Amino acid sequence: MALLPILCFPDPRLHKVAQPVQAVDARIKTLIADMFETMYHAHGIGLAATQIDVHERLIVIDISEERDQPLVLINPEITWASAEMKVNDEGCLSVPGIYDGVERHEAVHVRALDGEGQMRVIEADGLLAVCIQHEMDHLLGKVFVEYLSPLKRNRIKTKMLKAQREERR
Ligand code: NI
Question: Global pTM?
Answer without folding.
Answer: 0.97
